[in-house]
Sequence to fold (96 residues):
Amino acid sequence: MLSRVPKIFRNFYAVAGLIFLTWMIFLDSNDFISRYKLSAKLRSLENEREYYEEKLKEVEKDRQELFGDRESLEKFAREKYLMKKENEDVFIIVEE
Fold:
């Protein structure tokens, strides 16, 4: 009966290694598939972090503009919020 089993499966270390690989690939909570998905999610979150850091810099620049002198405050209000004085007309040019 033992002669029917291939020689590789009679070796304890080969069988233990095969069981270990099967366990790590499919059954463990930290299997390779889950680790790949988590690393992809990490890369995605790092890219989002870079995006939000850039946005934060833009907002900080706008904040500095806003709390600068009176002229820059007026310029900011006119450009961002389309505010105007009572005797002025506002024309919006949309670039396509």
Q: What stands out?
A: The two ends are 81 Å apart (CA to CA).
